[in-house]
Amino acid sequence: MSNVESNLSSSREPPPGISGQWVYANSGNDDQPWLSLEPIKYYTDAYIIQDNKILLGYKKRGFGKDMYNGFGGKVEPGETSLEAANRELQEEAGIEAPLRLAGSFLFLNEGDDHTFHIDLYRADEYTGTISETDEMRPEWFAIPPELATPQGNSNSREEVPPIPYDEMWGTDHQWLPFLMAGTPFIGRADFIKEGTKFVPKRWWFGTRDSL
Ligand SMILES: CNc1ncnc2c1ncn2[C@@H]1O[C@H](COP(=O)(O)OP(=O)(O)OP(=O)(O)O)[C@@H](O)[C@H]1O
């Protein structure tokens, strides 16, 4: 096998920390070394999808400040990941929803003493009134036309802006389409910090037909 072929086939293999039967979906900066895995801390992010729109929150303080993200946070001791996702959705957006696991990924940031394991949840309905909190400002964005479904009311979709990927984590555009399509996914994203910015160093995502 030539070097080019062996690099290509190894970049399609799941990275350290990822196991199970996953089909390669995308990767980037495959020539970069992976960071070394650190002890894992568990986090959640939750997304509401309705009428071909997705609800994101603009983070007003703390980690990820000034970026749009799902509603979520740390899994506290004694909680399951799903319990944490429900609690954080209530705390940060003021709503309740029948969240379902959509995928997960590992996030490493150079120099950090831990690896983030982030479970991503989705619900297609919610109860309560979406409310701005100290931490998050909720806003609706349009699902891209290729992922929009006929069930949704597309008129309201046209009244909101497209997903603001340039104000989100640098690898979100690699996996958020899987969450919106309902395709289970897993992955890993390593970042380096340049000044105050987090820059993707290397990433890999895989999918499968069902969880
Ligand atoms: C590529 N990297 C990433 N991509 C997408 N989302 C990421 C992320 N890295 C962290 N996140 C999310 O950012 C929130 C931080 O949580 P954070 O606010 O610190 O937690 P929590 O609310 O428990 O904290 P406080 O109680 O306020 O300290 C939490 O939803 C977590 O999933």
Summed up:
The chain has one domain (45-207): Nucleoside Triphosphate Pyrophosphohydrolase (Alpha-Beta Complex).
What does this structure look like?
This protein is an alpha+beta fold and 211 residues long. It has a single domain (45-207), classed as Alpha-Beta Complex (Nucleoside Triphosphate Pyrophosphohydrolase), CATH 3.90.79. 18% of the residues lie in helices and 36% in strands. The chain has 4 helices and 11 strands. The protein has helices at residues 3-12, 81-93, 154-157, 172-181, and strands at 23-28, 40-50, 53-59, 68-69, 95-96, 100-109, 115-123, 127-128, 136-142, 185-194, 197-207. The strands form 2 sheets. Strands 1, 2, 3, 4, 6, 7, 9, 10 and 11 form a 9-stranded mixed sheet that branches. A two-stranded antiparallel ribbon has the order 5-8. A hairpin with an 8-residue loop joins strand 3 (53-59) and strand 4 (68-69). The radius of gyration is 17 Å and the shape is globular. The two termini are 34 Å apart. The model has no long low-confidence stretch (mean pLDDT 92). The structure holds N6-Methyladenosine 5'-triphosphate (N6E). N6-Methyladenosine 5'-triphosphate is lined by residues 43-45, 62-64, 69, 72-74, 107, 116, 118, 169, 171, 189.
Bound molecules: N6-Methyladenosine 5'-triphosphate
Radius of gyration, rounded? 17 Å
Number of helices: 4
How many domains comprise the coordinates? 1
SSE order in H/E notation? HEEEEHEEEEEHHEE
Let me know the CATH homologous superfamily: Nucleoside Triphosphate Pyrophosphohydrolase
Beta-strand content: 35-45%
